[in-house]
Design goal:
10 helices, mainly alpha, elongated
Amino acid sequence: MNILRLSDIYKKKGFPLVTLILTILCLVVSIATYLYPIIYHFLTLCENHFKSWQLISCLFVHNESPRPLLLIQLFVNLLGLIPFGIFTEKILGKLRALCIFVIEWLVTLGVYFIFQQDSSVFAAGISSVVYAYATVSFICCIIIWRVQGSQIWKQLLTYFFIVEFLSLFTILNPFLFDQRNVLANFSGIVVGGLFAFFSKKKLHSNLRKDFT
């Protein structure tokens, strides 16, 4: 077995359809709410004006105020979603990448309903899914390292810390801080970790099939 490089993962055949769709949805919904603030409250979760589509749209809406921070938060989330989402799809396949998204979406909704705060608006953003994909990516890299000695986990970890450093500007900003978002992000780590653990056989199978 040849020692894997990070570029080998991203060059693997197969189009990252799930990541592309999530990226487009984030861009379309967030930019639309930035240009037309009036639609913001039709897409976020709020008890006072609940609509069924808000259950999914809230995951692609970023915070409204102050408006310039919306674009910064969106940019940082996409910096994580695109590389970690593609990595997850390339290693585990589209179906498992989609399953991770669906599970984390349901968990994020659970966080909202359990910790509901006086009918306040909840714009989850895609960050909890990013944390799930990032966790899956790291655990996959550790397994790859144990199997064949590849050090790609170091590159991925370095990139993650860069993204996290940039995200501190939004996470610590009093306009954007929401305890529910923090809990949702933490749930992404848990969901990603559990999913990677139970996908070890699939990972080993893919390594033997695609990278030997």
